[in-house]
Amino acid sequence: MINTITKDMLVEAKACKDQVQLFTKIFPDGARVNKTNALKADKAGLCIDWAASNLLSSDKNGDYRAKRKLISDDYDAKRKPLLGDYEAKHKPILDDYEAKHKPLRGDYRAKIKLIWDDYRAKHKPINDDYEAKIALLFVEIYNS
User: Which residues are paired to 32 by β-bridges?
Assistant: First the structure.
């Protein structure tokens, strides 16, 4: 298997125009399939799952999907209590808001922003770790 992804490969595999342009911007000379470039591609917003579906062989894509499911399950398990915490904190605030309605709409939004910002701050490292694992899994499977 070729160890470098090129713009031509993406075009041939019918990647969307935006992804081809982004890939070309980030990797003007193509990208060797390695951990550094996978993480760079992920951070730039290139779709790793699309690459797995369209650039890996059927067998390797199956292996990628099976291993990706384990990473996704781990991500969901870490995310679920955060979301539950957010929802538990949100309910009394929403109930209070609905009781007071329009006069305190600004108060509601300020309170929700605080707990949403808290959720997002706690979620970010988990999400970044998840996305990095997906990118690295692609490299592992692509190069195997």
Answer: 4
